[in-house]
Amino acid sequence: MNAPYLPRNCWRVEILDGDWMPASGTHADKAHAEALMDAAMNRHPGSQLRLIRETTTSHVEAIRGVGHLPAGTNAEDCPACIGSNPSYPFLCPGPAS
Ligand SMILES: [Zn+2]
């Protein structure tokens, strides 16, 4: 399940008003953000505006948590075997798996 970990890009507009202040929400579509910047320029002639591209990247590192029980334990009692449907006689393969 990789979808939640895809890099994200979004765009927003800032206006210089003593400091850089938000002038739009964030939008996935750059063209939409640019249109909002044009509209802000019309509302605030003579002001400085800038387009901000925000990017986020997620790195999934080591998984911790539920492991297998000792080899030979009944797989029905092993939290790591749940849903794995091991073949008969339904024994947990153990922590090395
Ligand atoms: Zn197991």
Structure description:
- The chain folds into two domains: 8-56; 65-97, no CATH class.
- 14% of the residues lie in helices and 23% in strands.
- The chain has one helix and three strands; from the N terminus they run ββαβ.
- The chain has one helix spanning 30-43, and strands spanning 8-17, 19-22, 49-56.
- Strands 2-1-3 form a three-stranded antiparallel β-sheet.
- Strand 1 and strand 2 (19-22) form a beta hairpin.
- The longest helix has 14 residues, at 30-43.
- The chain is rod-shaped.
- 10% of the residues are buried.
- The model has no long low-confidence stretch (mean pLDDT 88).
- The chain binds zinc ion.
- Zinc ion binds next to loops.
- The site of zinc ion has 7 residues, from loops.
Order of helices and strands: EEHE
- Number of DSSP-assigned strands: 3
Listed once per kind, the bound small molecules are: zinc ion
Tally of discrete structural domains:
2
Report the total helices: 1
Which strand order do you get reading across the main beta sheet?
Answer: 2-1-3
Mean pLDDT rating: 88
Distance between the termini: 21 Å
Structural class: alpha+beta
Radius of gyration of CA atoms, rounded to a whole number: 26 Å
User: What overall geometry do the principal axes of the alpha carbons give?
Assistant: rod-shaped
| Unreliable stretches covering 5 or more consecutive residues | none
Strand content: 15-25%
